[in-house]
Amino acid sequence: MFRVSLLMLVLDLMVISAFAVRHSRANDLRFENANIKGGGIGIRIESHPSRPYEEGRWVKNLVVQNCTFEGCLSHEIEIYGMEGICMEDITPKNGGECGS
To answer: What does the longest C-alpha to C-alpha distance in the chain come to?
Structure first.
């Protein structure tokens, strides 16, 4: 069995939505210059929902840079079951439960 690792690069994203971005078991994600407004959760990145620590199910390599989250009712960024996270210049504004 072999694994293919692809980089997902999201630049200059603007979202006004209930759930902006959600990924399960995705590796090598990079978000830059995102502006996410409203909704429940801004970005949620996780390993497999029911078995996050099972062999081969870790999510790896997340970069979030220069992003603004405004008016999210729950979490601006929610992450679990990950290895290798880099976050810089994150600005939460008027958030709900956590993060601002």
So the answer is: 46
